[in-house]
Each structure stands twice: as C-alpha cells, then as structure tokens.
Write a structure and sequence with these properties.
single chain, mainly alpha, two-stranded antiparallel ribbon, extended
Length: about 200
C-alpha cells in the first residue's frame, strides 16, 4: 500500500519541479521591444538583419555538387585573408598620410613589409593554388585594386613584374579583377552568405 502511494507522490513532485524550472526567467528571456502608435494601435517595431535568398542549387551530377562544395571551402579559407589584406592596406594608407617625408614613408613600408612577411608567410604557404587564385580575386573585391596594382604601388614596377611572372608560372594572374555579376557570381554569393552568417 505504501509503495502505491509513494510512486505517484514522487511523479507529481518531479512534474512540479519541472514546472517550477520552466517558469524561472533570466535576463536572456527578456526582450525590450520598441513600439509606435498608429491610429490608436500599438505596433511592434524591430530592425531585422538583411538576409539574401538565392535559388536552391540544382546539380546535374555528383561531380558538379562536389565542385561547388569545394568552392565553398576554398572561399571560406581565402576570404579571411582578403579581409585582413583590405584592413591592413587601409591602416597602412592612413598612417602613410601622417608621415612627412618620402624617406619616412619608405622606412615605414619596409618595417610593415618585414612584419607582414614574418607573421603571414608560413600560413599563406598552406593555401592551395585554387585558394590563391580566389584570394587574388577577393583582394580586388576588398580593395578595389588588382593585386598587381597594389604591389606596383607599394613596391614598384619591377617588383610587380617579378611577382606577376612568378604567379603566371604557377598558373595564376595578379591582374585578375573581380566580376560579382558574371564570372565570379558564385564566389560573391558565398561571400555574402559568409558575411551574413548563413554559411
């Protein structure tokens, strides 16, 4: 008899404990909403993040699907480097404007070049040739200039010519631009989704 009475009491107490835990509110549960009055009605107003919707991809075969998946992985690998290049270039340009003489600018550029080479040479060597090609395109997207023009501006024409020749030797091209509505449409879609946290 006692056993028949104890089991329902335990079950009811567990249910009550679960109910009590569900009703506990924390600061994360509270959302302060803005509202506006329109014709006597209060309307909730919220700012939503922009979301880009692309048509669902249809692949003719498994090979095409794998190629697209590899493109996503390659863009994810190259994009942070392109962002870093754009940010670094902006910082360098802002600092160059504050320097008075050409000698100071040259010394500053040599110092920055050494720091960048020391810090990023090894990680960048780990990029594949395909990721390097995508990086060249994404650098153009971030800076508005081809990699060739950037090297030419900071290091001179001879250096730009040398690096272009080396890039061509490995099947790449520093003079590649970026066409988000044409040839590079898929890369642009992937980058936008990465920026919005969708990928």
């Amino acid at each position: 008899m006692l056993r028949k009475l104890v089991i329902p009491v335990i079950i009811m107490s567990l249910a009550w404990e679960g109910y009590a835990q569900d009703s506990v509110r924390t600061s994360r549960d509270i959302f302060v909403a803005r509202g506006i009055l329109v014709d006597g009605y209060t309307l909730w107003v919220a700012e939503l993040d922009e979301v880009y919707v692309y048509p669902q991809k249809h692949f003719q075969n498994l090979r095409q699907q794998r190629k697209y998946t590899r493109l996503i992985l390659n863009v994810k690998k190259a994009y942070p480097w392109a962002k870093l290049a754009g940010e670094t270039m902006e910082e360098v340009n802002n600092h160059l404007v504050t320097l008075q003489t050409e000698k100071e600018q040259d010394e500053y550029l040599k110092q920055i070049e050494k720091e960048l080479l020391d810090e990023y040479t090894e990680p960048l060597k780990k990029l594949t040739v395909t990721q390097g090609k995508i990086l060249i395109k994404l650098v153009y997207r971030e800076t508005g200039e081809t990699s060739y023009k950037i090297v030419e501006f900071y290091r001179g024409k001879f250096s730009a010519f040398f690096w272009q020749a080396l890039a061509r030797l490995f099947g790449s091209n520093l003079k590649l631009d970026y066409d988000p509505y044409g040839e590079d449409r898929l890369i642009e879609e992937i980058v936008v989704q990465i920026e919005n946290g969708q990928l």
